[in-house]
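User: Reviewer 2 asked us to show a designed sequence for the structure in our supplementary figure. I'm pasting the structure tokens here. Could you produce the per-position amino acids so we can include them in the response letter?
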């Protein structure tokens, strides 16, 4: 299920991948287009949100070796980002929740490993 890396290394890689996915891999277009409260004309906000969330989930799946954690990240990332875009969360709350998810994925991996 995991890459064989120590859990702290997996967490660090997921945080790095999150920054990569939330900044350069998201870009200005997805950042604006995923916002249902202020959508880009002609671009379905849910498609942009899904694309960004799938990138994030794919990164978690690749790092952990778990399709299920990748899918969980995709869904939770979309929910968190939508809450931020609709004004229910601040930018810092959004980022803190994303990092908390990485800790949750590590906790699940630890549980599944029998520690």
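Assistant: Here is a per-position design you can include in the supplement:
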């Amino acid at each position: 299920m995991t890459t064989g890396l120590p859990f702290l290394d997996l967490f660090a890689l997921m945080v790095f991948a999150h920054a990569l996915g939330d900044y350069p891999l998201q870009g200005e277009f997805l950042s604006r287009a995923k916002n249902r409260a202020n959508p880009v004309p002609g671009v379905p906000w849910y498609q942009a949100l899904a694309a960004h969330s799938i990138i994030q989930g794919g990164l978690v799946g690749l790092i952990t070796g778990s399709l299920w954690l990748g899918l969980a990240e995709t869904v939770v990332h979309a929910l968190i980002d939508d809450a931020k875009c609709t004004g229910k969360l601040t930018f810092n709350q959004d980022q803190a929740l994303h990092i908390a998810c990485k800790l949750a994925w590590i906790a699940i991996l630890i549980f599944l490993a029998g520690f």
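For the response letter, you might also mention the following. Residues 7-113 form one domain. The two ends are 15 Å apart (CA to CA).
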